[in-house]
Amino acid sequence: MTDTDETQDPGTAQADAAQPGVPVSSGRTADRRTGWLAGKHPFVIWAWGLLSLDFTGIAFAALFFCWSLTPSLLPRDWLFQGLIGGISAAIGYGVGTAIGWAVYRFYLAKRPWWPLPPRYMQVLKVGVVAIAILAAMVMLVYAAGWQRELSALMNAEGTTTTGYIRTGGLSMLVAAAIISVWRVLRDLGRLVARYLNRWLRVPRQAALPLGFALVAVLTYALVTGVLVKEVYALANSAFSLQNDTTRAGVVAPVAPEKSGSPDSLVPWDSLGFEGRNFVSRGLDAQELSRANGAPAKEPIRVYAGLESAPTADQRLDLLVDELERTGAFERKVLVIIPTTGTGWVNPTAAQAIELVHNGDSALVATQYSYLPSWISFLADREKAAEAGKRLIDKVHERWLTKPPQTRPKLYVYGESLGTQAGEGAFDGLADIRNTVDGVLWVGPPNSNVLWHQLVSRRDPGSTEVEPVYSDGLVVRFADEVADIAQPPGPWWPPRVLYLQHASDPVVWWSTDLILKRPDWLSEKPGEDRLPQMRWFPFVTFWQVSADLANAAGVPDGHGHNYGTSVLDGWLAIAAPDGWTQADTERVRGTLEAIAGSEGPEK
């Protein structure tokens, strides 16, 4: 962002230049000595400078704000829209002041007719402000309509036009705060430059850029090296306290097939919040028998929390010992589940696996962080990949020691950041096919290396939202359940399947959105994305960033909420022999009943 003192309205700059004592770079719309600021304390003058605005910047701020009101992937309420609108307006203001400075410097300054007479300049300025306000109000009305349309597309409750108008006021406050912070940093740079010139005799031409550079470096170091570090430490401490709690109604299991039971090698108290949820939930053998109409086995669930052993290696040793103790290597399927940051495992996915195989299954997972997925995504992505690799390698190593004719089918399941943890275990598709019997990955982040390679190398003619890789012979991508069978040709085992909604911001968020239009925004929109969504530099990045905060807050089948589609995904890679569509609907009904009785995750 540029400085209004350096890039103010060209007409104002030249008019001020004609007044004694007011430099062209002043950027003030009135002489400080003759206006109301005359005689005021320097701090008052400086504070007023934080509020004065450049009119070219205002025009571009309004443009960027209007862009931010266009629809993105998910419905946004007025609060999120206000934040994104304010950030976008502040960026637009910076772009506008830079353009205004360049136009004046290289064009208007050389024209004898500039500046216009004061009367026309005032009309021009008033007109810019009036048009900016009018355009913003009109766009707010349109935006409310787009948000209702998007909400209806996802069977969610929409906003009201009057309620959405609040966006404008919040955006103004956010933009003003950002611009003021920038100006404070700018003035600090000038102060440093002044002292460099006075004390170290640095020439003025060099002192100013050097002062700005020093302030920029110190600010970056403060934010990344101190502020961010302390925020992460504070978050880790806060969420470690939650890790010691237990969800209401969750009790220690008594079945020996579960970690945390009296027979377990892993103490119940060491499993953590998500680990205790995982081992205590799901249907037991009797409930599975009633649901499936056939005798079932007691499902095995093995888990290790961060406090289950002092080191990561010791936790992994504990896990494989638990697998041995429970007889997991004698079941039909063994599923390795690299988790999200806190160790969360999607309960619907876990229950789907156990229902499909009537309890003849073993699930194994571990916790590697106290931080929730969205913080881990920013701070612990490498840690997630490393944790996933170590878990899969350790279980696979023990699995290889079992007789091939009796050992279980080995699968990998992952969701969200868990897909990144899972991908970290493999060098590519060939490695996956040589290691496991199938993979189901749900809602992969855009930064996943393997996912990105496969999508980038998709078959010509296929889209980024619905890519086809090598005719779908090994790996497939599905937006909807019906897409799993596409293309209709052969699908060789072991199969790899990615479930990814067109409206899932976790899948499509990337820093590349700042300056580059992605293919998915150039193509025909997916099933649950409005065609009115467009790419705008800077703005789209912040829109999708806001969508991340509500990624799972939409109904099943949209955003990052995959509901019972994980059942269809699981059946695509590991359906038992003789499985029918009637079996699928029976299991789906059971999953929906469980979800309705347990309520949403907390």
TrEMBL record:
Entry keyword set: Membrane, Transmembrane, Transmembrane helix
Pfam families recorded: Abhydrolase_9, Abhydrolase_9_N
Domain Alpha/beta-hydrolase catalytic residue range list: 300-587
UniProt keyword annotation of Signal present: no
Span of domain Alpha/beta-hydrolase N-terminal: 69-282
Chain segments annotated as transmembrane: 43-70, 82-103, 123-144, 164-185, 206-228
InterPro entries registered for this protein in UniProt: Alpha/beta-hydrolase_catalytic, Alpha/beta-hydrolase_fam, Alpha/beta-hydrolase_N_dom
Residue numbers spanned by region Disordered: 1-29
Name of this protein: Alpha/beta-hydrolase family protein
